[in-house]
Amino acid sequence: MQNLFTLAGKVALVTGAAQGIGREMAIGFAASGADIVAVDLNEEKLSEVKKEIEAQGRRCLTLKVDLGSVAEIDAMTQSAVREFGRIDILANIAGVNVHKPAEEMTEQDWDFVQDINLKALFFCCQSVGKVMLQQGSGRIINMSSSFGVVGFGGRTAYASSKAGVSNLTMTLAIEWSAKGINVNAIAPGPVWTPARDALFSNPEFYNHLLSKLLIKRTAKPIDIVGPAIFLASEASAFVTGATLLVDGGFCAQ
After folding, report:
1. For residue 143, what are the β-bridge partners?
2. What is the Cα–Cα distance from 3 to 33, expressed in whole angstroms?
3. Counting CB atoms within 10 angstroms of each CB, which of 11, 136, 167, 204 has the fewest?
4. How far apart are CA 33 and CA 48, in angstroms?
5. What is the DSSP string of 54-95?
6. Contact 180/223 with Cβ under 8 angstroms?
7. Which helix (H) or strand (E) holds 232?
8. Catalytic residue set
9. Residue 183 and residue 152: Cα distance in Å, rounded?
10. In tens digits, what is the pLDDT along the chain, a chain of 253 residues?
11. Residue 117 and residue 165 in contact, taking contact as beta carbons nearer than 8 Å
12. Half-sphere exposure of residue 224, counting CA atoms within 13 Å on the CB side?
């Protein structure tokens, strides 16, 4: 029987690949057979990811890219195609957050979050999407959030950007699915990444999160990898325009 979950022979470009969910996803895609284009600003941590991927016998191109620059996004895509000849999977994982009450959110805070989480994500889709349209095939996986499905205090910029990601995902699916590109999103619940150590180590905040979760723990980055492999592989051949909740039941209540 065909292995529906293999990524053998595929090339996957992962943004935010130096740490957290993006790191685990890049390594997980490689474990499933893909060669990887690992994109981030942190070159030191990217080099560590490259070593782990190459230890699995896969190729890895690391690129330092400022996703706030459309020109750098296009250069990223060109570099990936020069190295591997194609891009089969795009995983838009890079993202930022600002935790502030709505009345304290500044224009700079708002623009910072929207520019990376939504604007940069779109232009990554556009840039890599042009390659996939030429190929007649591709899989795009966007990073949404359970906070983009339901509200959560102190996350006005973040939650609205992630709601935008889910709607953008549906819109791109409408335009591109008939041309061979499946476009989907993953909406994690609370994920304990190194960037959230200080916040999640606060017992009051952590217990508040647990009260909203049916599975009584926060997610680990590795918990997002399996769903991503599903969306990147032939196992999801008839899935497009969807936002897959991976939230421990956060949105079920």
Report:
1. 186
2. 12
3. 204
4. 19
5. HHTT--EEEEE--TT-HHHHHHHHHHHHHHHS---EEEE---
6. no
7. helix 225-232
8. 158
9. 26
10. 679 999 999 999 999 999 999 999 999 999 999 999 999 999 999 999 999 999 999 999 999 999 999 999 999 999 999 999 999 999 999 999 999 999 999 999 999 999 999 999 999 999 999 999 999 999 999 999 999 999 888 899 999 999 999 999 999 999 999 999 999 999 999 999 888 888 899 999 899 889 999 999 999 999 999 999 999 999 999 999 999 999 999 999 8
11. yes
12. 32
Nearest to 4 by CA among 248, 237, 245, 253: 237
Q: Nearest CA to 228 among 47, 57, 42, 10?
A: 10
Indicate the DSSP class of residue 218.
P
Structure tokens at 135: 């190929």
Two tokens at 252?
A: 């079920």
Taking the C-alpha atoms of residue 212 and residue 151, their distance in angstroms, rounded to an integer, is: 12
Q: Are 48 and 251 in contact (CB under 8 A)?
A: no
Q: Phi first, then psi: what are they for 154, rounded to 5°?
A: 80, 10
Determine the residue type at 155.
Answer: R
Alpha helices in 177-211 (DSSP H): 197-200, 203-210
In whole angstroms, what is the distance from residue 161 CA to residue 155 CA? Answer: 10
